[in-house]
Design goal:
Strand order of the largest sheet: 1-2
Shape: globular
Structural class: mainly alpha
Number of domains: 1
Strand content: 5-15%
Number of helices: 6
Order of helices and strands: HHHHEEHH
CATH architecture: Orthogonal Bundle
Largest sheet: 2 strands, antiparallel
Number of strands: 2
CATH superfamily: Winged helix-like DNA-binding domain superfamily/Winged helix DNA-binding domain
Oligomer: single chain
Length: 157
Amino acid sequence: MTRTQSHLPLLRELVRAYQAFERYSAADIARRGLTPAQFDVLATLGNTQGMNPKTLGARTLITKGTLTGVIDRMLAKGLVRRDPDPQDGRGQIVRLTEAGQALFEEVFPAHGRYLQQVFERIPRPQLRQAERALHTLRSTFEQAASEQRAGPASQEI
């Protein structure tokens, strides 16, 4: 493997770890009557005063088109409501209803405990090592993205 391809095993393992996490997590979420996207919205809106769809999309990483459908389905279940945005006459604020907040207070900690069962299988030093490695990886990508947005003038030649 060449130097330029030395990142591929890490990338492959990162993707596989994420996929395994998603499968495990989604199974619990489905048992609770939610889709992963609905859980993501519920968890993001829980204990907040709500947020506009743009902010909600950015915090959940759900695309605008998908987010609209997720919110519509949650609206039909009585979990969220759309209120006028007092800061923007054309905008909306998505908020949890009382039923949505109650579901959040039940499901969010229960799902955390469900995930904790797996993380407890990993010795604490290895968890901290993985956390540091992932932090370094994320920071490096964020720095590269920032440099890319800034353009060639800000990069060293």
